[in-house]
Amino acid sequence: MKRILSVALCLAMLLTCFAVGAVAEETANPYEVDESLSGTFTWWTYFDQAPFLKEQFEKKYPNVTIDLQVFGGDDYQTKLMNALPTGQDVPDVFDLEEGYVYKFIDSPLLADLDALGLGEVCNSYYDWAVAMGRDSNGTLKGICDNVSPVAFWYLRDAMEKWLGTSDDAEISAMLSSWDAIKEKGLEIKEKSNGEVYLWPNLSAMVKVAGYSLTPIARNGKVAIEQGWYDLLDTMRDFWEAGIVADLGGWSGDWATAWNNGTLLIRVMPSWDFFTDWSINTGNVGVAAPFMASYEGGTYRAIYANSEKTDLCVKFLEFLTNETYQLQNLYTNNQMPANKNIAGLLGPDYTNDNFGGQNIMKTYDTICNNIADIVPDQYTRGLQNKFSKYAQAGIKEGKTNDEIIDTFLADIRDTYPELDFSNFN
Amino acid sequence: MNIKRRQKWAYLFIIPFFASFLTFSIYPIFYSLYISFHDYNPLTLAMKPVGWSNYARLFASDYFWSSVLNTIEIWLISIIPQLIIALTLSLILNERWVKGKNALRSIYYFPNLITPITIGMLFTLLFGYPGGAINNLFTSLGIFNQAVDFKNTTWLAKTVGGIAICWQNFGYNIIFITAGLHSISTDVYEAAEVDGANAWQRTTKITMPLLRPIMLYIMITSIIGGLQIFDIPKMLFGGATDSYATRTMVLYMYESAFENWQFGYGAAAAYTIALIIGAFSLISILFNAFQGRGRKEAA
């Protein structure tokens, strides 16, 4: 009897294992498996979350192997630049970061993705997210799978304490202009005896306003619209009011101050990695700023002479896929570039890391408000330089004209090919 | 085997070295000279001849010349204390009464084993604003009333760069100075003692003059190395200050070529930097030769 019982028990356990395995397999693979495609292709990236995409893609196409090569650091673009023209050991697919995508995008070494039928799969993308992947003739050369809308990141308990609410919509309404931010900043500074700051640094102001102002160089000509001067005035006003924490963005002090609640806002894109989730899971919130902008972007391109174009096209198609972008959102908090996903998730979507907030709704609002500015190779670089000279000049007590003069001197040196006739 | 046949074999053995030397050292030197007269697109490999315009742009660039000045300032800030510390410690460690000399020399040499990248990051953390270790320490001791922004205060940023380079290299110089001290015959010191020279006189009248060749070597290598400083300033304060205070000339060249992809301009900067370093080295050699001749004549 004992023997029968033990055999039955073993069988039951074995069956349970199989059942669990089957269920696990079913839940672990949300894709419709396609075994008809096979082969290997090489993908170069700098992006540390790339193994996730590789794993997901290989779940859908189990007979395709991606030879993924991840290169860290600044030298990635130099490596790519050296490899592509030679045609030797060239990757079939490669990633380009927003900061240098424009150096590559006009090159004929990047395949025309419109011609490969990939333009259509991006129809449901936010327009500005597709625009970054187009070359100066408007041809699609790179595709992203996520977007990087900039939001006000805050800790719920700290906001409850100092602003009386942790609701993102209420916070957005409270901080709906520079004047409103200044007023709240002064209030918090006074209440906390200067221990707590609402606003992190001057450069965060450029980050918020950068894509709501006409880019400083358009069609090769430099022009600085009044909005940039107004921004300088506002930055100076903030600085003189003493409401800026002056913690360098991305610095240890800045991250620590935010994580312990002595800095209330960080202006960061959705891929922010400075949150200490070990102490703040469920306590984080993101609110839409009153001006919409983005920071960063990873664009994938196909080498024009690749012999694996069919596999590469399937790969790029895959990353535009709603199912994959949802997995990427759930696992990595990466905001989908496909705007249908906000609708798919619906109004009831919540994210536990963010205290049950529907972050998709917040980000969708930001993404839909990003101005229709098609960036070029100068857009981000000039914003960064403007931010640098504005900060330094304001701290040194310079006038707007003095700041603009030093800024222009630098960009004349860096980009002599630009037309400066507006300033002669 | 006669000499001529042996010589043929010798040529065969040195071919690998010369092949790699010509390919990886000499060829790039001449190729970059060629690039410096072109507008070079790295993705199409297209070269558009532009004559001397890259050099003209460079010579007219205030930013290049300010990077040259930054380099010299950072070098001076690092080399002066570096030589004083290295010489003083070498002299102390050369005394018979000092215990644990070898251990101390090793300890002083340790910073030289650390990569410049690490040193740059370490000093960024030490001199961070507002919560770097130095700011925390000095504020808690009441030396600073408030945290100091080392990064964005021009002269402080340069000083931090100089201190980092000094800290990395003083132990390396101790090795050379110690070798120089050991090469001075004890007979000379004994003779001086017999003649009644005190320790100060022995140091200034014997040690220092006899260390001149080694100090000349240190100066020349320091000029060549010091004017090429790149990695510590690149890493220090995240590679950028609001005032470009720590942008050295090699960093300027790197940014032009590898960040802005202006390879022709970057190559022109590289050649100009080589000329500047050559000129400084020549001045140093001539200065020492002139001083040496002056002393001989005086003697």
Describe the structure in your own words.
The complex is a heterodimer of chains A (424) and B (299). Chain A is of the alpha+beta class and 424 residues long. In chain A, 47% of the residues lie in helices and 11% in strands. Chain A contains 19 helices and eleven strands. Chain A has helices at residues 2-28, 50-60, 75-86, 101-105, 118-121, 127-131, 156-163, 168-174, 178-191, 203-209, 226-241, 252-259, 277-280, 309-320, 322-332, 340-345, 359-369, 379-395, 400-414; strands at residues 39-45, 64-70, 93-97, 146-147, 150-155, 217-218, 221-222, 266-269, 284-287, 298-302, 335-336. Chain A has a four-stranded mixed β-sheet with strand order 2-1-3-10, sandwiched between helices. Mean pLDDT of chain A is 91; it is low at 19-26. Chain B has one domain (33-293): MetI-like (MetI-like fold). Chain B has 13 helices and two strands; from the N terminus they run αββαααααααααααα. Chain B is 74% helix and 3% strand. Chain B has 299 residues and is mainly alpha-helical. In chain B, a hairpin with a 4-residue loop joins strand 1 (38-41) and strand 2 (46-49). The longest helix of chain B is centred in the C-terminal third of the chain and has 36 residues, at 263-298. Chain B is globular, with a radius of gyration of 24 Å. A two-stranded antiparallel sheet of chain B has the order 1-2.
